[in-house]
Amino acid sequence: MVLEGVFTAIVTPFKENRIDEDALKKLVDFQIENGVDGLVPCGTTGEAPTLTYEEHERVIELTVKFVEGRVPVIAGTGSNSTHEAIELTQAAKKVGADMCLLTTPYYNKPTQEGLYKHFKKIAEEVDIPLILYNIPGRTGVNMTPETVARLAQIPNIVGIKEASGSVVQAAEIYRLTEGKFTILSGDDNLFLPIMSVGGKGVISVASNAIPRKLKELFEAFRVERDVEKAIRINSELLPFFQAIFVETNPIPIKEILYFMGMIERELRLPLCPPSHSTSMYLKDISKKYGLYRRKDD
Q1: What is the largest CA-CA distance in the chain?
Q2: Would you place residue 296 in the very low, low, confident or very high pLDDT band (cuts 50, 70, 90)?
Q3: How large is the angle between the packed helices 82-94 and 112-125, nearest 10 degrees?
């Protein structure tokens, strides 16, 4: 299975505090029809921390069902408990996920050796391809390139979603793994820069709303080898990339999807709807990019 391209970190739509299964199917079909290379349910963007264990498994199961084998499903199964991460990963494999995405443990701030042993243990316990996820801004710990290089030696650890915010760190992972380990940007703003130092794609928030444009950026750089075209597309999309992080993810992208008529305006506490000024700003952004579809606002 080729791990390259645009993978959407898909939101979890809610309706009256339940998973909105109809909206999820609509989102899945929209993504695939617009050329994404895979879907990532139950990540940060999918509000995984506020899903019950049963909901977590259900979202993955539904995503697999709605995808119908058209693209890979990479299930978010990370936890700050190694035991729980193993259980979530086993459950994801059971319902048909193709790979799993595992964030570095949050809050308990393990050492680099602890990180290595955490991921090694999961890889030993569950026979499924695993993607590491480094996002120190959320977890409080940065996984160093040296630790990533050690983990890259484990056969079923196949790549990393690198969201440290450092292009240098991505480049160092590429150097230490001799370009043999898949690096995916975990930040839409750094998608193009990380591809320029060896990255093979992105796990994207923006592609929830603009999947076709993200795929065009990928193809311009990686397929057509047209750097100038890639720079132009990146410049065009930069205001959108910045807008979707004006408040905590996934608040802005869910607001835009609401304006697109794709989902209800609903998040799980402690996340809440954006401020009025942010909402108006996101409405303007939606209109600027031709996404606004609502008739009742």
Answers
A1: 54
A2: low
A3: 30
Catalytic residue (one of 116, 133, 258, 289) = 133
* CATH domain 5-235 topology: TIM Barrel (3.20.20)
218-259 residue pLDDT tens = 999 999 999 999 999 999 999 999 999 999 999 999 999 999
Rounded to whole angstroms, how far apart are CA atoms 19 and 220? 36
Confirm if 91 and 75 have CB atoms less than 8 A apart. Answer: no
Residue 161 known to be catalytic: yes
Strands 18-19 and 14-15: antiparallel
Q: Which among 161, 200, 215, 254 is annotated as catalytic?
A: 161
Whether pTM > 0.70 for this model: the answer is yes
Q: Is 22 exposed, middle or buried (0-12, 13-18, 19+ CB in 10 A)?
A: exposed
25 is known as an active-site residue: no
Nearest by Cα to 162 from 149, 153, 154, 211: 149
Distance from C-alpha of 91 to C-alpha of 111, rounded to nearest angstrom: 27
